[in-house]
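User:
Care to share a sequence and structure tokens?

Assistant:
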Amino acid sequence: MVPGRADLLAVAAFAPRFDAPDFVVGWDVPGSVGEDGVVSIGWWEHSPAVSEWAQALYDHHIIDPECDYMGEANRELGRQAFEAPELIGTLELPALRMLMTAIARSDRFDWGSGLYEEAFEKGIAQAATRRLGELALGG
């Protein structure tokens, strides 16, 4: 399913939250040993804003389950985007969806990859979120 204008705007609405000075991507939750001796390993937890945004990518059809997000062309696009995040501002919707699908799928299925964290640290997620808004407005 191709996202409509309302879908793009719904995801783009997260941009101000990401630009806020107090925005955090997430945090490490330390492991522990309970009184009963059960060991809990630590994990990375996304902030509520990132968790809601990640779900919105699926809910609003930005994630494209039909695209070849692991293909050579998308790996090259991802490499370029992580090296030069300003590239995100030039992407059209199909390429942007493919890149966001690769990031989301990697974060979801490659436990501990930290790709969302890196995408936010490099400004890629924020730029992609803003770009969806631009595309919704005809940009």
In short: Residues 63 and 100 are 7 Å apart (CA to CA). The chain has a mean pLDDT of 90. Helices lie at 5-12, 15-19, 48-59, 72-83, 93-109, 115-121, 124-136. Strands lie at 26-29, 32-33, 39-40, 43-46.
